[in-house]
Amino acid sequence: MDSCNCIELQWPPDDLLMKYQYISDFFIALAYFSIPLELIYFVKKSAVFPYRWVLVQFGASIVLCGATHLINLWTSTMHSRTVAMVMTTAKVFTAVVSCITALLLVHIIPDLLSVKTRELFLKNKAAELDREMGLIRTQEETGRHVRMLTHEIRSTLDRHTILKTTLVELGRTLALEECALWMPTRTGLELQLSYTLRQQNPVGYTVPIHLPVINQVFSSSHAVKISPNCAVASIHPSGKYTPGEVVAVRVPLLHLSNFQINDWPELSTKRYALMVLMLPLDSARQWRVHELELVEVVADQVAVALSHAAILEESMRARDLLMEQNVALDLARREAETAIRARNDFLAVMNHEMRTPMHAIIALSSLLQETELTPEQRLMVETILKSSNLLSTLINDVLDLSRLEDGSLQLDLETFNLYAVFKEVLNLIKPIASVKKLHVSLNLAPDLPEYAVGDEKRLMQTILNVVGNAVKFSKDGSISITAFVAKAELLRDSQTSEFFPVPGDNHFYLRVQVKDSGIGVSPQDIPKLFTKFAQTQSTAIRNSSGSGLGLAICKRFVNLMEGHIWIESEGLGKGCTATFMVKLGIPERLNEPELAFMPKVPPNHGPTAFPGLKVLVTDENGVSRKVTKGLLVHLGCDVTMVSSSEECLRVVSNEHKVVFMDACAPGMDGYEIAVRMHEKFTKRHERPIIVALTGNTDKVTKENCMRVGMDGVILKPVSLDKMRSVLSDLLEHRVLFEAI
Amino acid sequence: MDLVKLQRQLVDYRDSLYHECFLDEQFTQLQELQDENNPDFVVEVVSLFFEDSERLLNELTKALEQQSIDFKRVDAHVHQLKGSSSSIGAQRVQKSCIAFRNYCEEQNVEGCLTCLQLVRQEYYLVKSKLEALFKLEQQILSAGGSIPI
């Protein structure tokens, strides 16, 4: 046995140690075989494992190791060379594979380790994100609360509701124990507890506004944590509980005048209110940043909402005031209208009814004068005549003045002889002047045109009045009347500061100056001269009559003629000068002699007959009807007569071209007919022309006629010429509104 | 009688009527309307006026005799009379009608009765005057002359 290369066994194989070695080897081999199996099994189960190849190698090495150990079992005893060969081969393979595995493992183990590190890293990151999500969600909640709060606050314009809602919602959102609002008092020196959340009726504590803690809060635009023991925070008796944290924020109170673009938001004088918020007692809650931000935002919103409410209140107050004023103005206007209507009614009556008896008196007295009278009787009649003339003048003056004021007076413009007007005035004034031994001189400038366009009657009235005044108020001396064309340079007179005459091509300014050497007028009385019914109180003229209306009327006439009138006097006893300027038109080059004989332009002679014109005449009065018919028949019309409004409406057809109706008869409503006729004939060319015959042509009647759709108004009685011209005008123009 | 004298008498008489305000220009207008087509226009109108006025005066008398006078009716009648008289140019009748209307508005019974008297008086006056005028005109026409304008 010496040639055997096998290792000399030192111990006998039946030794216990050997036995244990056998068993250990066996189990090692078993383990070594099962480990790869397990590995393979679990790897197969897991879907992802990046290092398969390494695992295979690893498995291989373990298997081989196991094989080695297994083979070891035979090598403990005497074994043949084959076994030795197998053993060696196995060992060699094992060695190789193990080494390779070892080498490979060097590469992959860091990777495997880093996987773990990454996992840890990711877990950390996830936790962090979770935290951030939580934060964002909280902020979002806060945002939602703010929006909801703002919405609640801004949805009302009532100040109290705004504030109450703010406190309630804030309390709810932030789960507050107590929330209070301190408003500055009127004086601005104190803060008064105005609203609280829990206590229903705040007792009205006040704190002075200049406490350091309050200043601190007011000077910062953020919410400030304050001590629960300070004056503003001790609104809730906390007793034995630990008070929660308290935060205060300022609420700016904005006024209307605060909204200036440049200064926003740093304003010089600002009033603040204080909002104090207390966290629940005995809780460990702390004010968190997002909660503080919420509070600040809400405070701002409240400020805006309050100012809106204030502005609304003011505008509603202004509107109420305006409405009241409106009502008052309306009333005043209606009163004024009533007054004007009353006056117009009065005038309408005076117009006709007063003049008629006057006319009768004057006419009959003058007739009486012509008869045989005893001297006393003659004197009496003369007095009657003089008085009634004065009265008549007065009535006319008053009526004229009222019409002038009304604005309803219009000048009758026509061409007239200017020189003749002056001569006439002179003739009228000469008798009286010579009785008073006054010398009157008339001086007409050579460039004064002989003919002018204007209202002759009223111009004469004005000149007569002025000259008459001169004569009336002079006891002796002379009166000079000068008339000339006002030149451009003279128009810039210091006297006529309000009056700016504009020279033009077809008009000129006539300037008349009347100088007298009478009693004059004192300077302070001059402005009163042109006011109605005002008379100077000097005793010298108490005897002379004068209603004080003359100059007032003259002034109005002169104004109508776009002119100016004024009086200068150096004082009592020094005479006075009356001057007036009026605008007159320059007539066209007409045949002058013709004009001298025909002062009125002849009326429009249209067709002298209207053959076959179908006309309908409505009049209750038989005589008037017959007369109107006669008129129209004379003009060649085909006249149908009816005597009532119903008959008129029955008979009228679109063949009738013109319908005449009596508009002022009581019982027959001419207006009603006009309206019905408009309804009956809707097309304009089918409808006959409707003309009202009336005895009353004031504005109101005319307006009424126009309103119901009448085409014309004529004053009764109608002369033949007038009817002729009316018909021709009507047929030509289909409308006629001025036929007096 | 001499034609010329008659014509002169007519003219004078007519002038006096105008002068005394019995008639006014309306009457002249009526005369202008008389032509060959309408030779008796004026007479017709005046006759119509007489009839109308008589009727109205009777109505007025009756109305004013009532216990409770209906002033509106009275006013309506007077208005008619006024219209008629102004249409033919009976100036004095018209004027008295105006005064009458005022009393009606005031509801003054005394005044109304006085006015009625006045109106009636004026009416009869103008009626007799017009009848005299027409008689003169007839005389001239039957003498073969023409009415002077």
TrEMBL record, chain A:
PROSITE patterns hit by this protein: HIS_KIN, RESPONSE_REGULATORY
Function in brief: May act early in the ethylene signal transduction pathway, possibly as an ethylene receptor, or as a regulator of the pathway.
Domain Histidine kinase: 349-588
Domain of life of the native organism: Eukaryota
Sequence intervals crossing the membrane: 20-41, 53-72, 92-113
Swiss-Prot/TrEMBL cofactor(s): Cu cation
Protein name per UniProt: Ethylene receptor
Keywords from the named record: ATP-binding, Copper, Disulfide bond, Endoplasmic reticulum, Ethylene signaling pathway, Kinase, Membrane, Metal-binding, Nucleotide-binding, Phosphoprotein, Receptor, Transferase, Transmembrane, Transmembrane helix, Two-component regulatory system
Family statement drawn from the similarity comment of this UniProt entry: Belongs to the ethylene receptor family.
InterPro entries, sorted: CheY-like_superfamily, ETR, ETR1_N, GAF, GAF-like_dom_sf, HATPase_C_sf, HATPase_dom, His_kinase_dom
Gene3D superfamilies: 1.10.287.130, 3.30.450.40, 3.40.50.2300, Histidine kinase-like ATPase, C-terminal domain (3.30.565.10)
Membrane topology per record: Multi-pass membrane protein
4-aspartylphosphate sites (modified residues): 662
Species assigned in the record: Hibiscus sabdariffa (roselle)
TrEMBL record, chain B:
Pfam family, one: Hpt
Main location: cytoplasm
PROSITE patterns the UniProt entry points to: HPT
Coiled-coil regions listed in the entry: none
Recorded superkingdom: Eukaryota
UniProt keyword annotations, A-Z: Cytokinin signaling pathway, Phosphoprotein, Two-component regulatory system
Signal peptide feature range: none
Domain HPt stretches: 38-133
UniProt keyword annotation of Nucleus present: no
InterPro entries (alphabetical): AHP1-5/YPD1, HPT_dom_sf, Sig_transdc_His_kin_Hpt_dom
Location of Phosphohistidine modifications: 79
Compartmental location: Cytoplasm, Cytosol; Nucleus
Functional note: Functions as a two-component phosphorelay mediators between cytokinin sensor histidine kinases and response regulators (B-type ARRs). Plays an important role in propagating cytokinin signal transduction.
PANTHER family xref list: PHOSPHORELAY INTERMEDIATE PROTEIN YPD1 (PTHR28242:SF52)
Domain notes: Histidine-containing phosphotransfer domain (HPt) contains an active histidine that mediates the phosphotransfer.
Protein name as catalogued: Histidine-containing phosphotransfer protein
Originating organism: Hibiscus sabdariffa
